[in-house]
Amino acid sequence: MNSFDSLERFQYNVDLLKRRKLYDLSNKSLYSAEWISRRDIPIIVVEMAKQIADYEVWFYINLNSHKHIIRTIGCVENEPNLTVLVQEFARDGDLGNLLLDNVFRPSEKVLIEIFLQIADGMAYIARNHVVHGDLGCRNILVFEKDPDEPKKNKVKITDFGLARRLDSSDDDYNTTIIPIRFCAPEILQNNIQSNYSEKSDVYSMGVLMWEALSYGMMPYASIAKENDVVDEKLNNRRLTKPSACNSKLWNIIEDCWHMNPKQRCTFEKIKNQLSNIEADYTHIGDIQLVAPSFR
């Protein structure tokens, strides 16, 4: 059973009001919401069917203390047929849409700061023996943004719908959904629990960095069929370097993409390497991103 002891209890129409539907899947819906009895933080509510809630809620509760992971504030008690979480709301939305819609055009040094924050959150997830399983810009929420000043940006990791616990024998995982363009090749080869690890998330981190440096472009965008993407990845045909990505950053990305998971770097190593690149900017200044061209 999941423990809600660390979460505050709220009630619809007493503490908060549910507003517009933002997102909908068969077993999960997100709504904008507003406080009645308090005004300290913007919120959304996440309504989940019982069959997925017992599994997914564990991650939100047990990974709730890191500054770069979505904060779950509490739960709604007076909705008996659903599990309802109250979470902080990112008004700017997710990183993928901001980049793709040309709303946010960050400099490379800003993206490096964003990558650092994501790697910090992912290192914490890995230390807690959890695999996120669905890392991509779409699952990075933007709470503060500035295209030129790195420290004026703040992002957080969200969506644990495909996450897995490595210290659990529970086999109640979602095995029907695989983010083919982002996931590690060993998962495409054999979607079994033993192929999920920190290193499979590291592979996805490399794709996320490529995606952000490509302004939200879909990986393997020139390939329409998912099965053909699988063939590309299993044959180690990699994404090409974005035109303005510097060589040190590209080396980190390539280190994420080794076919052998044991050869990939860890999130702690990614953090250290990104910190070193960030420090270089105090000496060489900023390099602005240029929109890339693709085959």
Describe this structure in words.
The protein is α+β, with helices and mostly antiparallel strands and 295 residues long. The chain has 2 domains: 81 residues, Phosphorylase Kinase, domain 1 (2-Layer Sandwich), CATH 3.30.200; 190 residues, Transferase(Phosphotransferase) domain 1 (Transferase(Phosphotransferase), domain 1, Orthogonal Bundle), CATH 1.10.510.10. Helices cover 33% and strands 18% of the residues. A 6-stranded mixed sheet has the order 1-5-6-4-3-2. A two-stranded antiparallel sheet has the order 7-10. β2 and β3 form a beta hairpin. α3 runs antiparallel to α5. The longest helix has 20 residues. It is globular, with a radius of gyration of 19 Å. The N and C termini lie far apart (49 Å). About 2% of the residues have low confidence.
Distance between the termini: 49 Å
Low-confidence stretches: 286-291
| CATH fold group of the largest domain | Transferase(Phosphotransferase), domain 1
- CATH 4th-level superfamily of the largest domain: Transferase(Phosphotransferase) domain 1
Strand content: 15-25%
Helix content: 25-40%
CATH class of the largest domain: Mainly Alpha
Number of H/I helices: 8
- CATH-derived architecture of the largest domain: Orthogonal Bundle
Tally of distinct domains: 2
Largest sheet properties: 6 strands, mixed
Please state the structural category: alpha+beta
Number of strands: 10
Order of helices and strands: EEEEHEEHHEEEEHHHHH
Spatial sequence of strands, sheet with the most strands: 1-5-6-4-3-2
Shape: globular
Rg over C-alpha atoms, rounded to the nearest angstrom: 19 Å
Question: Mean pLDDT, rounded to whole units?
Answer: 91
